[in-house]
Amino acid sequence: MDPGAVREIVEWAITSRRSVRGFTAEPVARETVVRILEVAARAPSGTNVQPWKAHVVLGPALTRLKAALLAEHEAGVHEAREYAYYPTTWRSPYLERRRKVGWDLYALTGVKRGDREAAMRQVGRNYIFFGAPVGLVFTIDRDLERGSWLDFGMFLENVMICARGHQLDTCPQAAIANYPAVLRRELAIGDDQMIVCGMALGHAGPDEPANRLVTEREPVEGFCTFHDA
Q1: DSSP assignment of 30-50, as one string?
Q2: Domains annotated on the chain, with CATH
Q3: Can you give the pLDDT of all 229 residues of the chain as single tens digits?
Q4: How far is CA 160 from CA 16, 139, 157, 169, 172, in A?
Q5: For the whole model, what pTM was predicted?
Q6: Is the distance from CB of 154 to CB of 43 less than 8 angstroms?
Q7: I need a surface site. Which of 50, 66, 205, 219 has the fewest CB within 10 A?
Q8: 178: burial class by Cβ within 10 Å (0-12, 13-18, 19+)?
Q9: Residue 199: what are its φ and ψ, rounded to 5°?
Q10: Distance CA 161, CA 64 (A)
């Protein structure tokens, strides 16, 4: 292939990836999901450990899982996530970035400042996988170390980028890990596994206001230092 064309395809797949928060009901073929995971598994991992495990949830199983997760959320049940995803103490510039994306999303979805009920409803959409026809739940062996978690992140990125090649969209969801007991019960996940995150997979809903969200990125000079002298 022409190198320029290859570059454009790869860059398109990366830059067109976004966190979609509203999907159509159009199904995704099982074979497509298998192919995405097969390609994603080419991700690098230290000494080829390949620490990722995935649960693909479809059809009636997905309906049951969504109902169970949403019921816990709406009842105000707060399980303890099994690992700390966010900082325990927020500081600049991370706090400002977090606030901005939150308020930008709420502005698009009509959630007004101080309206906790509306905010909880929007958060609750995580637990129905934003209406996606495919729910993914990822786990890792509990005794693996940080390096394997880094490897897992590369695998997850591959899933999302490969999905773009199939004209599909995704939303990685740390919130799914908020209810490990529900996931263990519904998906028969053993205690030796730690819940990493979930992911919605499907076709983006063209009329979903949240899908108009465009997040900002720090310019290269803001996070990169060149050493060349």
Answers
A1: HHHHHHHHHHHTTS--GGG--
A2: 15-81+126-175+186-217 (3.40.109.10)
A3: 898 999 999 999 999 999 999 999 999 999 999 999 999 999 999 999 999 999 999 999 999 999 999 999 999 998 888 999 999 999 999 999 999 999 999 999 999 999 999 999 999 999 999 999 999 999 999 999 999 999 999 999 999 999 999 999 999 999 999 999 999 999 999 999 999 999 999 999 999 999 999 999 999 999 999 999 9
A4: 10, 17, 5, 7, 8
A5: 0.96
A6: yes
A7: 219
A8: buried
A9: -155, 130
A10: 28
Contact 162, 121 (CB under 8 A): no
Contact 132, 200 (CB under 8 A): yes
Q: Is 93 exposed, middle or buried (0-12, 13-18, 19+ CB in 10 A)?
A: exposed
Among 166, 144, 125, 139, smallest CA distance to 54 is for: 139
Look at residue 189 and give its three-state secondary structure.
Answer: coil
- Nearest-angstrom CA–CA distance, 114 and 65: 30
Question: How many CA atoms lie less than 13 Å away from 214 in the CB half-sphere?
Answer: 2
> How many residues in total does the chain contain?
229
Written as one letter, the residue type at 160 is M
